[in-house]
């Protein structure tokens, strides 16, 4: 399994996600342009001293990322009408793809993915912005939930 971030903007989120990747021993793919430099102090601080434990791959753009990952399933995450996370069956070689914090994944990227997944939120905002409810989860939280569920399923399938 791998995680990919499409044009991440907030260094603290990416640092937290890198820390989760280190904990689960999975690579982190960063698809440029990034909204920060990899030397950013907030990125480094959020990842603590775990950076040596995570493999970070950078891709100049989404096309170069897709070229490098042609044999793997791309599982996109969005609040937009995906299969619910609990109902999806992950495989060992899946790549979990997450979008920008401000705009998510563009439809053009979702269309190139193999599956679209949504995390169920019982108090999600629907309709206009005057309605109460949560618009979305924080990127690092959504990524952590997805990593955990995928890892749990894969280990169960493998008898662990």
Automatic annotation (TrEMBL):
One of its GO terms (molecular function) is tRNA (5-carboxymethylaminomethyluridine(34)-2'-O)-methyltransferase activity. S-adenosyl-L-methionine binds at residues 99, 119, 121, 136. GO terms for cellular component: cytoplasm. GO terms for biological process: wobble position ribose methylation. It comes from the Bacteria. Could methylate the ribose at the nucleotide 34 wobble position in tRNA. This is Putative tRNA (cytidine(34)-2'-O)-methyltransferase. It comes from Prochlorococcus marinus (strain MIT 9301).
């Amino acid at each position: 399994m791998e995680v990919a971030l499409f044009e991440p903007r907030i260094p603290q989120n990416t640092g937290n996600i890198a820390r989760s990747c280190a904990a689960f021993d999975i690579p982190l793919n960063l698809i440029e342009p990034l909204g920060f430099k990899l030397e950013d102090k907030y990125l480094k601080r959020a990842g603590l001293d775990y950076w040596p434990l995570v493999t970070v791959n950078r891709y100049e753009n989404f096309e170069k990322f897709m070229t490098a990952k042609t044999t793997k399933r791309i599982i996109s995450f969005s609040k937009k009408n995906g299969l619910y996370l609990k109902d999806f069956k992950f495989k060992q070689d899946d790549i979990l793809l997450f979008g920008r914090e401000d705009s998510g994944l563009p439809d053009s990227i979702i269309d190139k993915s193999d599956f679209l997944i949504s995390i169920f939120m019982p108090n999600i905002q629907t309709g206009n912005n005057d309605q109460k409810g949560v618009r979305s989860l924080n990127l690092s939280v959504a990524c952590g939930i997805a990593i955990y569920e995928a890892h749990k399923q894969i280990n169960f399938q493998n008898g662990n």
